[in-house]
């Protein structure tokens, strides 16, 4: 039997090399130690501790309510167990918009207290100054353009971006975040041909979520991809499992065994 060599830790430069070599980047969200450990073992390149935790962990209707302290707690859970994946943490709404000093201070906390390897923030041209300030502080930044969930109310809901002549503005955003020092950019809910054009125009890797196959990599919210959420699933998601139904079935069997006196058995009980 041939031993498989251990995977090297994924670094920011690893993503740049992947783009140069035409190797697709694989990313998923993670919010706790057990799932992060599993995804890390599965060979996922990037684990994003997303502010989507507000939705899929805390049950909130938008991402706006999650706090920096909560993001630090979730990031620490993920970073403490990961061996090889690059851990990226979202800067939550309200933690970076006001000024450069606030943005840098928030990013420092995610790195120092949360153990993140990089941070992500939403916005293109309007956030270039924040990206530059954070990268100047020695903190790697992933940008996020297209549909940006923190701006959901301003955008009028879950609306695809880059249609009806908006592609030029998206290209401006993409070039602005690259020039500001972002090492990668998430492109969300953008027509596939537009996302492909952005990918070709940039030196930094693009990671799509609802951006088509032309991006340099892909990311999904794991609860959507693996059927942990039992509600509406975005149209751009492919479900690889139905864990929610499996858990429901297991919980129902457990409840039935307890009510019928079938659990615990003698072997599951202690004796004197």
Automatic annotation (TrEMBL):
Residues that bind Mg(2+): 51, 90, 122
Cofactor(s) recorded in Swiss-Prot or TrEMBL: Mg(2+)
Catalytic activity: (6R)-5,10-methylene-5,6,7,8-tetrahydrofolate + 3-methyl-2-oxobutanoate + H2O = 2-dehydropantoate + (6S)-5,6,7,8-tetrahydrofolate
Keywords for the protein's UniProt record, in alphabetical order: Cytoplasm, Magnesium, Metal-binding, Pantothenate biosynthesis, Transferase
Pfam families: Pantoate_transf
InterPro entries: Pantoate_hydroxy_MeTrfase (IPR003700), Pyrv/PenolPyrv_kinase-like_dom (IPR015813), Pyrv_kinase-like_dom_sf (IPR040442)
CDD domains, A to Z: KPHMT-like
Binding of 3-methyl-2-oxobutanoate, residues: 51-52, 90, 120
MF GO annotations: 3-methyl-2-oxobutanoate hydroxymethyltransferase activity
CC cofactor note: Binds 1 Mg(2+) ion per subunit.
Family: Belongs to the PanB family.
Assembly and oligomerization: Homodecamer; pentamer of dimers.
Function: Catalyzes the reversible reaction in which hydroxymethyl group from 5,10-methylenetetrahydrofolate is transferred onto alpha-ketoisovalerate to form ketopantoate.
Protein name: 3-methyl-2-oxobutanoate hydroxymethyltransferase
Species annotation: Gulosibacter bifidus
Phylogenetic lineage: Bacteria, Bacillati, Actinomycetota, Actinomycetes, Micrococcales
């Amino acid at each position: 039997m041939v031993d498989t060599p251990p995977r090297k830790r994924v670094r920011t430069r690893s993503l740049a090399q992947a783009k140069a070599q035409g190797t697709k980047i694989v990313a998923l969200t993670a919010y706790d130690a057990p799932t992060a450990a599993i995804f890390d073992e599965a060979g996922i390149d990037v684990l994003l501790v997303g502010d989507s935790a507000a939705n899929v962990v805390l049950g909130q209707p938008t991402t706006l309510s999650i706090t920096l302290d909560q993001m630090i707690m979730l990031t620490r859970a993920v970073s403490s167990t990961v061996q090889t994946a690059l851990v990226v943490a979202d800067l939550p709404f309200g933690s970076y918009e006001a000024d450069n000093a606030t943005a840098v201070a928030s990013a420092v906390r995610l790195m120092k207290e949360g153990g993140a390897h990089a941070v992500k923030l939403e916005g293109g041209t309007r956030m270039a100054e924040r990206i530059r300030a954070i990268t100047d502080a020695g903190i790697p930044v992933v940008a996020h353009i297209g549909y940006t969930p923190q701006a959901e109310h301003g955008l009028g809901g879950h609306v695809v971006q880059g249609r009806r002549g908006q592609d030029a503005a998206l290209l401006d955003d993409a070039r602005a975040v690259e020039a500001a020092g972002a090492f990668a950019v998430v492109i969300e809910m953008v027509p596939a041909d537009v996302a492909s054009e952005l990918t070709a125009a940039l030196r930094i890797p693009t990671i799509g979520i609802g951006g088509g196959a032309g991006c340099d990599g892909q990311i999904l919210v794991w609860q959507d991809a693996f059927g942990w959420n039992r509600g509406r699933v975005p149209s751009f998601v492919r479900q690889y499992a139905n864990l929610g139904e499996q858990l429901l079935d297991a919980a129902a069997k457990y409840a039935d065994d307890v009510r019928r006196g079938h659990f615990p058995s003698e072997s599951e009980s202690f004796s004197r």
